[in-house]
Amino acid sequence: MALAAIYLRLSRNEEQLDIEEILTNHRNALIKLAKQHKLTYDVYQEISSGVNTQRPQLNQLLNKLDEYDYLLVMDIDRISRDNAYAEQIKTMLIAHDIKILTPQGAIDLTQESNEMLYSFQAMLANFEYKQIKKRLGRGRLAAAEQGRWTMSNKTPLGYEKDENQRLVIVEDEAKIIRYIFQKTLERVSSNEIAKQLDMLGWRSRNGKVLTTSHISSIRRNVVYYGVVQARRRVNGRVVDEVFVENAHEPIISKQQWLEVQKILEENTTGNFFNKRKVTRKLQNLIYCNCCGRKRYIQIDGNGTDFIKSCYYKISNNTCRDRGHKYLPVEDYVINKVKEKKADFEKTVQKLKSLDTTDEENKILSQMDSLEKQLERFEKRRRNLTIMRADGEISKSDFLIMSEENEEQIKQVKQQLELANIQLKNLNNTDKEQQVLEGIIKKIDTMEALDSENCNIFLKTFIKKIWFSTNAIANHNTKKDVPEVTIEIEWL
Fold it and tell me: Where does this protein have coiled-coil stretches (predicted)?
């Protein structure tokens, strides 16, 4: 008696409601077909996409082709919807002299007409798959335009879907999201946030530890300020996109999200987060005024803290700014911060009197600068299109440069949106007053703060401290040392 292999495949995203029931029906139909032809059989069954070439059950079947005389399937598209892979399987079936049986009839691949029929049906299956995928993509976009969550059955941490496919907040999970964004605003690193979440016993929906990768993804996700975003891709490129704000209740405000994005963009070198235990008040704040790189603090043989000499390369030339004792620099900065107290007090008085002219002018100036940047990037977009049309650049170069330019445009627009929100919030100054009043109180007790807490406090209003001895590092101790440069860049 001849031996047959029954292959059953169904895709999870097919429109039928009960996959298990359909698989059972298909199995019964093919077993009946095997009995009609008096065949013994082995059954191979799986749930997978027809374009997937890595299917365990199919691969197992193909590895044992020399044992079989027939292959039983419901239709050719069950074997593969990928043209190239379908042709590869056809070659293997011909080599092993295996006939295909379907409920619609037999296909003997040794006959030229049947071979052509197989290839034609495989081509139709591939075309049908692309059409189904296109319709599903358009359907998801149409649903997303109505504010419904259609990107996947899995919802983001902090949300679940209601009966209308809209996201609703799950409070036990939402507290994790708020914590992550708040700690990022406090410039706590993702590694440290992950440790703190682990200590609190806060886990993912599946009970797994939240890693830095999870945290990085969460901090970039627009869904948390109420957005539903959906994209349709063709050959890896976005051809259609939906972006709907106020689609569901936000876990954080849009302003918080934009402020976090600004911090993340600034953090290209990792200097904006507290990553290690801080042992000095100015740790990770001092930068070389000559080359712009971070300056490090060490202890010399006598146990004295000193700022290391700078040896970074600039255009093949080494920066050799001389080292310096650390404590005088710390004292200078602390005194400057105390002097800044008067400015903070004036700002509080202005806020109390609702005189926000200076702040408004500062934001308007920032917006003007951003508008000019945006205009420049949009001009570059037009120029790239013209250059591509004239054949001055290749398609691949055009795509790479366009993607980089679009990313720049996106970042500038986000910063403009944040500035707009800040401008609108100028009249709502209670929170800013409280923050500044807290800073003023803390300034008087800075010496009593330990290094770590003082460092965190300073980072709330100091961006960088630019330092240079204005002298080249050498062994000549008799040479006159010029006055050092210490400039504070305030946030």
Answer: 334-429
Phi, then psi, of 282 in degrees rounded to 5:
-105, 15
Beta strand 305-307 pairing with 297-299:
antiparallel
DSSP codes of every residue in 46-66: EE--TT-S--HHHHHHHHTGG
Length of the chain measured in residues? 491
At 297, which helix (H) or strand (E)?
Answer: strand 297-299
Cα-based torsion angle of the residue sequence 230, 232, 235, 238 in order, rounded to the nearest 10 degrees: -60
Terminal CA-to-CA distance of the chain, rounded, Å? 84
- Rounded to whole angstroms, the Cα distance separating 206 from 157 reads 10
Confirm whether pTM is higher than 0.70.
no
Which residue matches tokens 């799986």?
A: 46
CA distance 340 to 79: 74
Q: Which of 203, 256, 200 is nearest to 226 (CA)?
A: 256
If DSSP codes are grouped into helix, strand and coil, which group holds residue 301? coil
**pLDDT tens-digit readout, 422-473:** 777 766 566 667 777 778 888 878 878 888 888 888 887 888 899 998 888 7
Residue corresponding to tokens 């070389």: 288
Q: 90, exposed or middle or buried, with CB in 10 Å at 0-12, 13-18, 19+?
A: buried
φ and ψ at residue 460, rounded to 5 degrees: -75, -15
DSSP symbol at 9: E
